[in-house]
Amino acid sequence: MIARREPLLERVEAGAECRDPLAVGAAVAPTRSEERTGERINVERRKELMATGADTIAVACPFCMTMLGDAGKKLESDVPVLDIAEVVAQRLAPD
């Protein structure tokens, strides 16, 4: 049994929720590949997530991990994108 006084992490939601299939654009990438106006959806979403002040971005989708990671490189962001399983494993590891 693991007991902790403080929460394992603070969950912060950004504007669009994960139920939105346009969260990073991976689900519709083939249909949006011809789009030439505005910013790429993954860059826009990464900016939203960074605006929350989070020090880590957790995802449950391999496409989101790739798309948000690519956007992070473009924006020169050092905020890591981790799979939710990695976040849980880190928090449960003994100190």
Topology:
Layout: H1 29-32, H2 41-51, E1 57-59, H3 62-74, E2 81-83, H4 84-92
Parallel strand pairs: 1-2
Strand content: 5-15%
From the spread of the alpha carbons, the general shape counts as elongated
Instruction: Average the pLDDT over all residues and give the rounded result.
Output: 76
> Distance N terminus to C terminus?
15 Å
Helical percent range? Answer: 25-40%
Write down the secondary-structure element order: HHEHEH
Number of helical elements = 4
* SS elements, strand count: 2
Summarize this structure briefly.
This protein has 95 residues and is mainly α. The two termini are 15 Å apart.
What does this structure look like?
The protein is 39% helix and 6% strand. By secondary structure, it is mostly helical. The protein has a domain of 59 residues.
Question: What are the key terms here?
Answer:
disordered N terminus; two-stranded parallel sheet; 95 residues; 39% helix; mainly alpha
